[in-house]
């Protein structure tokens, strides 16, 4: 059990018990001094679990509590990798602050983490390649070099010399980080290759299910791992699963993993190479598949057509199957048994309306407006601002078509859009607040576009849409101080005022309609609410 140095009040000859205490303190002090030169992993792991420094910075030192399970190289790499990445970042921060004592102690600890990762991974993995062995050697050499140079910096008092040494430490730290990244990527690539090979060759449902689950967990670690999985054939292997009837019960899991991988460009390219869009169309249009399977297929479609990803706009194979996919997705929206299924299907439709304008014409012919507006009154399917965001996105994109206006009026859609202008978050979570802002903005955009038709404009005025738009413009709290909502509301208000100017008071007309749009925007965005 470790003790802190003490006994400084004992200036006379101690009693036998006190003499023993002094011997223990001296041993601990000597041990702590010797540790500067020691890098034995076991000793350092003990130190990590026992805070011995009074330095407030030390209270945030990383402790690797409980190791990964035996024979689990992936978890070992992920856990050690996270710790080492964090240590590298923190060393850089302390170096910028010239906290040399902390830089050195953290460098020693970093060396131990790196050595532990190398030795533990070697113990549980297959024979490492020559390339990995070389990078491991380079990594450990740089770790030793970092520890040595930071220790020398502790002895230097000349600021000019320290400044030059700081540049050397920074360069060493940068090179060390590069070696670590290369080693981690190589090791993770080997493990991913093993997983993909197992999925590709296995005939067992249980083995394939467990391996696909491991692959899905890896996709949740971020884009770099998704790129590795895509490059190593993960997309090909998963679509192979989705084309075998014997694995039907695994389709939802495989499709969920594919949706995650396709957040990166490499995943989308691989999907197109294996005719993945055609496979997704087959699943969506086959009613013998479960709703869960079709919902996960919709999620993949939503991912690969996302307007936020520039590389998804070049899916030439998608256009060939678009009509089938759009029809199947609208049917899934109509028959959805839960809000989650409706959200996935409607999100895919919303993204497709950005992907190609033909989709809006298809939806119009399929009576999509009636299907979507009817769903809005069904709380089981449409119960969150995220779902309403998808619906109003589809309506906004369809509203560029002239025929859309008559369908909206026929289905009492103006009243629904009016309600969306009053979308409020149930919780204060940033994601939900942002979703509500998007609903308000897109509802105003839809209203502005539809109000080209005088009948829509008159219906909007009759439902007091102008009053609500004025309130959103003048009251920042009503729009969560969103500039995007403000611009959309000003545009909609001006469009309505052009048809029914009598619905505005003079002050509203002079401030919100008559000036240039930018002047009205500046006036409203600078308004301060009074709390007196």
UniProtKB/TrEMBL annotation:
UniProt keyword list: Cytoplasm, Developmental protein, Differentiation, Neurogenesis
Sequence ranges assigned to domain Protein inscuteable homologue LGN-binding in this UniProt record: 23-69
PANTHER family in the cross-refs: INSCUTEABLE (PTHR21386), PROTEIN INSCUTEABLE HOMOLOG (PTHR21386:SF0)
A GO term for molecular function: cytoskeletal anchor activity
GO biological process: apical protein localization; asymmetric cell division; cell differentiation; establishment of mitotic spindle orientation; nervous system development; regulation of asymmetric cell division
Record localization: Cytoplasm, Cell cortex
Role this protein plays: May function as an adapter linking the Par3 complex to the GPSM1/GPSM2 complex. Involved in spindle orientation during mitosis. May regulate cell proliferation and differentiation in the developing nervous system. May play a role in the asymmetric division of fibroblasts and participate in the process of stratification of the squamous epithelium.
Identification of the protein by name: Protein inscuteable homolog
A GO cellular component entry from the record: apical cortex
InterPro entries xref list: ARM-like, ARM-type_fold, Armadillo, Insc_C, INSC_LBD, INSC_LBD_sf, Inscuteable
Pfam families named among the record's database cross-references: Insc_C, INSC_LBD
Organism: Carlito syrichta
Boundaries of every Protein inscuteable homologue C-terminal domain copy: 80-532
Top-level taxon: Eukaryota
């Amino acid at each position: 059990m470790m003790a802190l140095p003490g006994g400084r009040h004992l200036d006379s000859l101690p009693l036998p018990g006190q003499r023993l205490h002094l011997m223990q303190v001296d041993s601990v002090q000597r041990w702590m001094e010797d540790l500067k030169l020691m890098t034995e992993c076991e000793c350092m792991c003990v130190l990590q679990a026992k805070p011995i420094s009074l330095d407030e910075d030390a209270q945030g030192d990383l402790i690797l509590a409980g190791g990964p399970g035996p024979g689990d190289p992936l978890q070992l790499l992920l856990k050690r990798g996270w710790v080492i990445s964090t240590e590298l970042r923190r060393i850089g921060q302390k170096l910028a602050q010239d906290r040399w004592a902390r830089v050195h102690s953290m460098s020693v600890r970093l060396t131990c983490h790196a050595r532990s990762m190398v030795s533990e991974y070697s113990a549980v993995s297959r024979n490492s390649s020559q390339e990995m062995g070389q990078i491991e050697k380079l990594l450990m050499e740089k770790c030793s070099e970092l520890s040595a140079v930071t220790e020398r910096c502790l002895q230097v008092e000349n600021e000019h010399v320290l400044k030059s040494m700081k540049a050397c430490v920074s360069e060493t730290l940068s090179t060390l980080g590069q070696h670590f990244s290369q080693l981690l990527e190589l090791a993770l690539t080997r493990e991913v290759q093993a997983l993909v090979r197992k999925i590709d060759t296995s005939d067992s449902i249980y083995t394939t299910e467990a391996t696909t689950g491991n692959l899905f967990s890896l996709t949740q670690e971020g884009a770099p791992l998704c790129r590795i999985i895509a490059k190593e054939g993960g997309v090909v292997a998963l679509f192979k699963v989705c084309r075998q009837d014997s694995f039907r019960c695994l389709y939802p899991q495989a499709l969920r993993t594919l949706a995650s991988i396709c957040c990166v460009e490499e995943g989308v390219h691989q999907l197109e190479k294996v005719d993945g869009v055609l496979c997704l169309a087959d699943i969506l249009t086959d009613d013998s598949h479960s709703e869960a399977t079709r919902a996960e297929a919709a999620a993949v479609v939503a991912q690969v057509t996302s307007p936020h990803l520039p590389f998804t706009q070049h899916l030439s194979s998608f256009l060939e199957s678009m009509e089938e996919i759009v029809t199947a997705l609208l049917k899934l929206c109509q028959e959805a048994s839960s809000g989650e299924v409706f959200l996935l299907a409607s999100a895919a439709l919303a993204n497709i309306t950005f992907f190609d304008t033909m989709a809006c014409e298809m939806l119009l012919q399929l009576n999509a407006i009636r299907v979507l507006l009817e769903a809005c009154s069904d709380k089981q399917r449409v119960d969150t601002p995220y779902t309403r965001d998808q619906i109003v996105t589809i309506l906004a994109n369809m509203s560029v078509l002239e025929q859309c206006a008559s369908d909206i009026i026929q289905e009492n859609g103006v009243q629904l859009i009016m309600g969306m202008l009053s979308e409020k978050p149930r919780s204060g979570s940033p994601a939900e607040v942002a979703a509500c802002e998007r609903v308000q903005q897109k509802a105003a955009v839809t209203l502005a576009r539809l109000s080209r038709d005088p009948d829509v404009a008159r219906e909007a005025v009759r439902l007091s849409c102008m009053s609500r738009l004025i309130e959103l413009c003048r009251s920042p709290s009503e729009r969560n101080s969103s500039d995007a909502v403000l611009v959309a509301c000003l545009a909609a208000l001006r469009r309505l005022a052009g048809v029914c100017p009598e619905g505005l008071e003079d002050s509203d007309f002079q401030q919100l309609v008559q000036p240039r749009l930018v002047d009205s925007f500046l006036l409203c965005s600078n308004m301060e609410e009074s709390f007196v």
